[in-house]
Specification:
alpha+beta; seven-stranded mixed β-sheet; 4 helices
């Protein structure tokens, strides 16, 4: 498995990957088709140019199988923090892609002096909760009724990992 940083030339392929993950996954924030492609294209290009953010891609068997997005704080008081989003296509879940992406993301963060990595995940998404705990993330709290899925309110965990100190 290879992990690489997303380049400007690969944005359309990345958007296809996010679309596939959102079609296959029950617990992503955005529903399939909810994103508007023209707007997303410009948003991702701006993201790539942001020194406080990155998008990493996992590749295996000559295909893109997952991604990790990290977006950093812009204010002086939160520049030590990044928030992350992780997505892996269904056929490669449970095969190490998530851990590889998290490890590469942590390496990227350490190189930039990032101290805190944070995320939210749906409480019922036990596979994701297990992945994050296995990689050293801790549950810091619960956002009650934070999302509405299939006309039912669901809770999300706040999870984080401190990289040093």
């Amino acid at each position: 498995m290879k992990i690489k940083e997303l380049h400007r030339d690969d944005v359309k392929v990345f958007l296809e990957l996010t679309d596939q993950v959102e079609r296959e996954a029950a617990y992503m924030l955005m529903e399939p088709g909810e994103r508007k492609s023209g707007h997303q294209l410009e948003k991702v290009k701006a993201f790539i140019n942001d020194p406080h953010s990155t998008i990493l891609i996992a590749e295996a068997e000559n295909q893109w199988i997952g991604y990790a997005l990290a977006f950093g704080g812009k204010a002086n008081r939160n520049q030590h923090t990044i928030s992350i989003v992780l997505g892996v296509i269904q056929d490669f879940q449970g095969k190490g892609a998530g851990s590889s992406l998290l490890n590469s993301l942590e390496e990227w963060a350490r190189e930039r002096g990032i101290h805190r990595i944070e995320l939210t995940t749906v409480v019922k998404n036990t596979a994701a909760v297990h992945l994050y705990k296995k990689n050293g993330y801790e549950i810091e709290g619960c956002k009650r009724d934070s999302l509405k899925m299939n006309n039912t309110y669901v809770d999300e965990y706040y999870m984080a990992k401190l990289l040093w100190g």
